[in-house]
Design goal:
By secondary structure, the protein is mainly alpha-helical. It is 48% helix and 10% strand. It has helices at 8-15, 32-35, 39-44, 63-78, 93-96, 100-105, 113-126, 129-143; strands at residues 17-22, 27-31, 55-58.
Length: 151
């Protein structure tokens, strides 16, 4: 079999959906293949479970944040985010993250600071490295040039 041939497992992952339940009992459906980007979700699903009618409780993430996480996971499976280079290859967030969708996903118009930190925490908890990298980078640029005084 060559690399272009899909296995039955690949096809199942494309068509199977799972449910994620937030700490405040909101439920979100997404394709199994997108959900498996989260090590938390993939670990929660047993190896012999095909994902059919599966529900994973994400007890440390509220619904409004989990909705954004699901949006990210679905988009990432359609169009993966380019890896963030280290050392950073630019002086601004937009120079480093060149894909417009990912720029807008964490833009101040889309997410306030509280949501940005909630996304960062959710990405860490759920083991979603690309989302963690994106949110950490955004926080880094937000904090650059700020003083440490507390008001």
């Amino acid at each position: 079999m060559n690399d272009d041939t899909l296995t039955d497992t690949d096809t199942d992952a494309d068509t199977t959906t799972i449910k994620l339940r937030s700490e405040d009992d909101q439920i979100f459906e997404l394709p199994l293949r997108a959900a498996n980007l989260s090590s938390f979700v993939s670990d929660a699903l047993t190896e012999d479970d095909d994902g059919t009618d599966s529900e994973v409780k994400v007890l440390r993430v509220k619904g409004d944040c989990l909705k954004k996480v699901v949006e990210f996971l679905i988009k990432y499976k359609e169009e993966p985010m380019k890896e963030i280079p280290l050392p950073l290859g630019g002086n601004s967030f937009a120079e480093i993250v060149t894909q417009e969708w990912y720029q807008k996903f964490v833009a101040e118009e889309e997410v306030d600071r509280e949501m940005l930190f909630a996304l960062l925490t959710a990405a860490n908890y759920m083991g979603i490295k690309p989302l963690l990298d994106l949110t950490c980078l955004k926080v880094t640029f937000e904090l650059t040039g700020k003083n440490a005084e507390v008001s």
